[in-house]
Amino acid sequence: MRAPAVERDNPLTRSFAGMLGIGFLVLMIFACVLTLPWTLGAAGGQEGAAVPRYNAGDPREGRLPPFWWPADETQQERIDAIEVATGERPRYWLGTDVLGRSLLIRILTGGGISLGIGIAAAAISVLIGTLYGGLAGYVGGKTDAVLMRIVDVLYGLPYILLVVLLAVASEAIVGRWIARGNVELKESTRLLIDVGTLLVAIGGVSWLTMARVIRGQVLSLKEQPFIEAARATGASPVRIFGKHLLPNLLGPIIVYATLTVPQAILQESFLSFLGIGVKPPLPSWGNLAADGLSELNTYRSHWWLLLFPCLLLGVTLVALNFVGEGLREAFDPKRRRR
Amino acid sequence: MTATAATTETPPQPGTPAATPILRVDRLAVSFDNGRGPRVQAVDGVRMTIYPRQTLAVVGESGCGKSVTAMSMLQLIPRPPGRFDRGEIIFQTEQGPVDLLTLNARHIREIRGNDIAMIFQEPMTSLNPVFTVGNQIMEAILLHQDVSKAQAREIALKSMRDVGIPEPERRINSFPHEFSGGMRQRVMIAMALACQPRLLLADEPTTALDVTIQAQILELMTELKRTRGMAVMLITHDLGVVAENSDVVCVMYAGRVVEYAKVFDLYDNPMHPYTRGLLASIPKMHARLDRLVTIREIVENEDEFRKLPGADEGIRPWWPWHTPPADLTAKDEPAGDYYLQEVAPEHWVGVWRTHAVRDHESRAPDIDYRVPPKEASVSA
Asked: Which residue of B has its CA nearest to A233?
């Protein structure tokens, strides 16, 4: 008789979908973020002031399909004309947009911006949510009641309306502040401020769920005897929160952070799609999709302009949710022994 | 007390005269807000005294106020809903006496874990699951002592060795879930002892452990008490544990002290009917009984309440379920219907404040006594 083989099972790698998601995300992040210096860098061979590569394009090359896709007659004529003029046949992996900019470069830049905003907004929401929920749960009593009623009220308001309001308001405030200071801003700084306000807007509303989850966890954790024991050894409340509560909260924090990232990306894309998010010429998956939609018509479908941004956005969101679910399962003690 | 001279391992603590109690609880009253309705008076008029190297056992059923009394000593009662209504808990620090109830948050934190340590009932959940036990023992040391991390580690190792954890160098890096219940309780004790506290509050330290481990843990505590000159307040509802491990016993009921005596006096001559009920309901090894005596059978017998010395003069044991005697002359103060009477030398019983004891002002229960070490008591 032999004892059954002990199954060495790492809960973190158990979920196949989760591992697939992680793989895709790592690939995506590497592709988007590592190419940022290149895509944001000045395009060579352009006359005049340096134009970042994501914004560089020749209008004559506008709306060209991917090179591997059969071009129709008019497109073929334009391609031939360009080849004659420059001696080089235009080859774009994902085609070009109205202004002749490479969609591949714009998608990579947009991906970097979308992922960046998503992760940063999730970080903001984790920070606010953990502190807020932790405070409410740990202090308890009236403080808890007041803090959580505020969350309830915010929950009751239409979520996206809040984001829109925050985005518009923070933009106006920054605008007025700049006007008063009479500061001449460089284009790049302006774009940066835009992205920043968007970040604050999204991060500022997506911490609600986090706060609730953390509060619930703290409520149950603080009744644990080891918290009482820590108090009996003379640890201060701040220390108890930092050393004894937070590490025990790490599981849910990681899980909800992972699930907040796709939410934030979706919101950013949605806002950009509506035109209040990332402003062109800076690309994001949202405003690329919006551009693509406007180029879609029954006479000549510039399908690549809509398909590729949407496809990447969709797959990334699915991957993030897979990872979140996988992590949730890995950290769920009830499912640990299956 | 001459008995103390028998413990030769420890010289009397310098600077602490044997006659100075380390802790004195005087007329402590703690109540809790019930949400709706009147406040719940968890503890009222509790008095007790603990001397160095002494074990005071506090016994009573669940909810009688044992734990509330202990938690009050470290201000661990959540306030609100709890509240200290009256009374004082005087603790002898190295700098002099302080009232633990009125210390501010910073000062009580200096006492917690340092001068007074506490161990809890559930060793399974009293350790933080995400840190190694060494980390947690060292935390207490680093909080209270001005030592480096390496020194704290040395102290933690020594402390673990003292409580009988084998291979402390290896076990110091283990997580709580890698320990058994008894070992975890040893870790808790190591944690409590790391700062050399002068008073250890043990709140049912062995309730969650099986009997053999229980015996080991209690023996360990007794030994550490002798070698370190520490005082112990042992909270339990196990009268077997009390008989074996304590010097003085305080029986509580419904938030008040009903009897307070040296351990042998209490077992030989229980005076309050409730104490008699408690002792009568313990199964005896040699007596065959069809059924055990219940506490209720004793406390519902009116005659039991007339056996107290001084009963003729109208002294009646206090009992919350009785209508007070006709000649009750309750003082115009909280718990004024009750009075802790020294009915025999060094033997206190909670009685009604009847006419007979109207003007008595007894001394607080105060017994500087230690059971002689085991060897002596066995040969006797």
From this structure: B113
Nearest to A323 by CA among A25, A27, A116, A28: A25
Q: How far, in Å, CA of B159 to CA of B119, rounded? A: 15
Which residues are CB-contacts of A140 (< 8 A; sequence separation ≥ 6)?
Answer: A219, A222
User: Do residue B125 and residue A232 have CB atoms under 8 angstroms apart?
Assistant: no
Strand order of the β-sheet with B338-344 is B116-119, B199-203, B231-236, B55-59, B248-253, B256-262, B347-352, B338-344
Kindly state whether B156 is in contact with chain A, defined as any CB-CB distance less than 8 angstroms: no
Q: pLDDT tens for residues A163-221? A: 778 777 877 887 787 777 766 666 667 777 777 878 877 887 888 888 999 999 999 88
- pLDDT band at residue B157 under the 50/70/90 scheme: very high
- Could you tell me how far CA A81 lies from the centroid of its own chain? 40
Where do the DSSP E strands lie in chain B? Answer: 23-32, 40-50, 55-59, 82-93, 96-99, 116-119, 199-203, 231-236, 248-253, 256-262, 338-344, 347-352
Judge whether B29 and B334 are in contact, CB under 8 Å: yes
- Quote the radius of gyration of chain B (alpha carbons, Å): 21
User: ω before B80 within 30° of 0 (cis)?
Assistant: yes
Residues 6+ apart with CB under 8 A from B202: B118, B119, B221, B232, B233, B234, B235
- Strand, helix or coil for residue A28: helix
Alpha helices in A35-158 (DSSP H): 36-40, 73-86, 103-139, 141-156
What are the Cα distances from residue A168, in Å, to A269, A278, B376? Answer: 16, 12, 86
CB B119 within 8 A of CB B203: yes
β-strand B248-253 against B256-262: which pairing, if any? antiparallel
Phi-psi region of B96 (alpha: psi -120 to 50; beta: other; left: phi over 0): left
Can you give the residue ranges of every domain in chain A? 13-335
- What pLDDT sits at residue B11? 47
Cβ neighbours of residue A84 under 8 Å, at least 6 residues apart? none
- Which residues of chain B does A251 touch, with a Cβ-Cβ cutoff of 8 Å? none
CB contact under 8 A, B125 and A230: no
Q: For the whole model, what pTM was predicted? A: 0.74
What the block records as the tokens of B198 is: 């002068």
Distance CA B165, CA A291 (A): 70
pLDDT grade for B290, boundaries at 50, 70 and 90: confident
Greater model confidence, A7 or A231:
A231
Residue to substitute from A226, A238, A337, interface B, most B β-carbons within 10 A: A226
Q: Chain B residue with minimal CA distance to A142?
A: B80
* Chain B contact present for A145, CB below 8 A: no
A13-335 homologous superfamily: MetI-like (1.10.3720.10)
Residues of A in contact with B188 (CB under 8 A): 229
Is omega for the bond preceding B81 within 30 degrees of 0, making it cis?
Answer: yes
Cis peptide before A281 (omega within 30 of 0): yes
What lies within 8 Å, CB to CB, of B254 at 6+ separation is: B64, B65, B320
CA A139 to chain centre: 33
Residue A240 is classified by DSSP as: I
- Please report residues of B whose CB lies closer than 8 A to that of A231: 74, 76, 112
ipTM: 0.76
